[in-house]
Amino acid sequence: MIRPDEIKMSTEETGKWGMVIDQDLCTGCQACVAACAMENNISFVGEEDSGYGRSMHWMRIERFWEGEYPEVKMTPQQPMLCQQCGHATCEPVCPAFATVHSQAEQLNLQVYNRCVGTRYCANNCPYQVRAFNWRDYQRPEPLPNQLNPDVTVRRMGVMEKCTFCIQRIHKAQDKAKAEGREVVDGEFTTACAQACPANAIVFGRVDNPESLVSQLAHEGHGVKHLEELGTLPNVTYFKGG
Amino acid sequence: MSEQFSRRDFLKLAGLGAATTAILTGCGPASRYVKREPYQQMPEYNSVGQSTYYATTCRECAAGCGLIVRTYQGRALKTEGNANHPLNLGKTCARGQATLQGLYNPDRVTDPNKAGAAMAWDAAIQVVADTLANYKPEEIAFLMGTAPDHLFDLVTDMANATGMNAPIRFGALSMFEARATLSKAAEEALGHFSLPWFDVGGAQVVLSFGANFLETWLSPVSYTRGFAGLREAKTKVRGKFIQFEARLSATGAKADEWVPLRPGTEALVALAIGKLAAEIRGGALPRVFSGVEPIDVAAASDVPLETLERIAGLVAASGGVLAIPGGPALGQSNGLAVAEAVLALNAFADNLGKPGGVYISGLAPAQVEYQRAASAQEMQELADKMASGAIKALFVHGVNPVFELPVSIDFKGAMANVEQVISFATFPDETSSLAHYVFPDHHGLESWGYQRVATGAAQPVLSGAQPVVSPFYNTRATADVLIAAAQLAGGKFAEALPYRDEVEFLNTKVAALMAEADGSFSAPEAVTFMAYFQQYGGWWKKSSALATPASDKALEQNIAAAEAEFSGEGEFFLVPFVSPTLAEAGANKPWLQELPDPTTTVMWNTWVEINPKTAEELGIATDDLVKVSSEAGEIQAYAYLYPAIRPDTVAIPYGQGHTAYGRYAENRGANPANLISGYFNEAGDLAFAGMKVKVEKISSAVSGAGLSRMESGMGVYGDFLGKEE
């Protein structure tokens, strides 16, 4: 458990875990969105609530239009998820220390049982990737049979967001520790990256220069979104086109 | 185990066991059911227990991707792709991910029943046996889903032995893919009656004429991998992709260039490009291109001559040109000509049977006539036979024809004339609600089986399926029901199916592969072979079986390349397209409903795509309720101003509009199949994109209603309604 006085901002250039998303390969097929929902026990909210922007997607595929018919073009699809910022704007505004930076994982944690639902964090997130449980969304029996026991089920009044599948990180680390070794690059991946039929999402250790994700992230044509805000995001995008 | 064996040693061994047998296998009928325990009774020490993983096959569409399902305490928790499976190499689409929402769907058929009244399985099997025995074989028809699976083989065996009608496979996806047209064109232009396979990954320039190969077309996971190969710039120049279609699809949105041609002119455009390219390249003009005049084509298709010349330049100059016909382009009166013209472009580009070109899909193991599902015209013939009383007993499995066929074919009316309709539906749907009996099959994840991979993988693949959880309800495998009923019916039926149960049938069929050379695994005896089959999730050959098409015919064809004919009085072309997220049977899965459509971001509903300029002229805004009417019928849905559609075209997604398919699907949206007349092209496929429709505004958008869509992530109801984002 991290005490409040132990919480400090990360000033390091790189985090520990990171992701590279190639927008040139992304087809917007939503496999990652579905995989994320299935892995992380995300509630569906129904037509009306989703129309009010209350859907619980931890990731969404953004697309924009440029020009007018016939010279109209869709910009490359942009999967948007928590950027696991090294210097996250959601963290300092939480009065309950529910949105904290993990020293061990270098990730932005969301501690559900601390969250009191002020929604300040969502307000302050420039990427708009946090989802708030406006209700206790129902899963009629027997749908709860599908719930992943490794992931907490959230209830009304709690904020949630992408965790980089921290349950998978921990599982891989536990296994590696039991076998007396380090986690190998590619040994596990997040639900979205595992599903992606185009291999547009690559996940791994960005502090290991040998890993695939580091090599991709340093290729040069990668961009980080809203980097000018100083958030130090850990997701790199290839714009494509 | 010795007495000195400590608990510590035991745990070590147990851990080792868990690591080495990561993918478990059920070994036979005795082990077909795993125990399911509720969380409440779960012992404390089990909460950090090991998961078990089973390899099986995805049944959400007919492609046949391999899955690995994570289970825990007898529950299925997550589906992932099977990394060894040659078709999908560990990947899945959104529908594969959501398959658990079908397994644990709150609206399933729980018991065998007669018009809703539950009955015992023994009585149910007697009903099936009586039906087989009491009707003449030629009065019995069996209708199944598109997938060429073990049940299809079982019924085929039964039909061959008894003279019963051969089973008919059909699905809305095969109708919208126009599989019959594609296969027929492959026969006429390439000399093989089989689905062609397009090596997108190896190509340099891809010209797609309406093919929605990144959405639902034939084998979307495999084709998406191909697309990634096209774009991968590591080892070669980034491939170019041009899409020809009237309405920009989610596939077209990935293209470098969109050519919004006039619907019906696809064949002309393909031939004109071929002619211009042949002129650039010089030499004799292939006969197939000789009938068109590019300048006239440019006028008819609204594609400027310069554009045609520029693309022809690409075709003439660069290697690695690949042209793909598909989607609405084939579902027109001249669909066959479109397919042949586009295949001729491939022959001109000299890519037949070469990397980055066109191949013929190899035959999957355990061959019977399976390559193509029934066309809509064959379904019309079935409906006619049912209506005339020639078919007196109908079995339906894995397909929902009352919903999936256009009302103009009137399958519902035909069903009313059939004396005995028995449905094996897992979910209550429009067809099963009209059946006399419903004898529910297991969900795919509770089932044994195998399925052929018809196209998408280079090598022949027989994908294996096994139950990953014990059946949740009082359901029974349809194969078991038919085997038991055949024994009761006696005579030729009993002779045709001399098996104890479904598993013995599968063992017999799969064991036949032991003699095949070049298999992905081998085993000395049948039990081990079957265990490997389940453990690996199927059997496949190590080497490619893609066939090289014959190249002599394609360029010598005479293609009657007239424009397509359209029926109806309306001023708009109608493009019905399959929803990329829901497809034909996804509407009852709540998370698929809540996935935003890739292009419009709409969730949970049906929309009508209208060009913004056209909408302005008609006084229509996004979220206005509109009526779309054709000669066949009318539907109402909300308008969506779609920037990437021709002004003379409207498009409507297919997948919603159910009247009976569980709580998440019912009374939601509208079904564009209600707008389609029963016209067929030369290959017997439905001319679903051959309608002209009228669009009328019914009412203006009101706050808190209209299309629920993601757009900005902020929601669109309330304050955002009717404003420009």
> How many separate domains make up the residues of chain A?
1
Could you say which structural class the secondary elements and strand pairing of chain B correspond to? Answer: alpha/beta
How many β strands of chain A by DSSP? 12
Q: What about the largest sheet of chain A?
A: 4 strands, mixed
Specify the biggest β-sheet of chain B.
Answer: 7 strands, mixed
From the alpha carbons, calculate the radius of gyration of chain B and give it in angstroms.
Answer: 26 Å
Pick out its properties.
heterodimer; A: 241 residues; alpha+beta; Alpha-Beta Plaits; 4-stranded mixed beta sheet; two-stranded antiparallel sheet; 6 helices; 18% helix; B: 725 residues; alpha/beta; Dimethylsulfoxide Reductase, domain 2; Barwin-like endoglucanases; 3 domains; 7-stranded mixed beta sheet; 6-stranded mixed beta barrel; 21 helices; disordered C terminus
Characterization of the model:
The complex is a heterodimer of chains A (241) and B (725). Chain A is an alpha+beta fold and 241 residues long. Chain A has helices spanning 31-39, 47-51, 120-124, 166-178, 191-195, 212-217, and strands at 17-22, 59-62, 65-66, 73-74, 78-81, 99-101, 108-110, 131-132, 159-160, 201-205, 222-223, 235-238. Chain A has a four-stranded mixed sheet. Chain B is α/β, with parallel strands linked by helices and 725 residues long. Chain B has three domains: 1-92 and 442-475 and 499-545, no CATH class; 175-363, Dimethylsulfoxide Reductase, domain 2; 572-720, Barwin-like endoglucanases (Beta Barrel). Chain B contains 21 helices and 28 strands. In chain B, strands 6-5-17-16-15-7-8 form a seven-stranded mixed sheet, with helices on one face. Chain B has a six-stranded mixed barrel with strand order 21-26-23-25-24-27. The interface between A and B is large, with 59 and 83 residues.
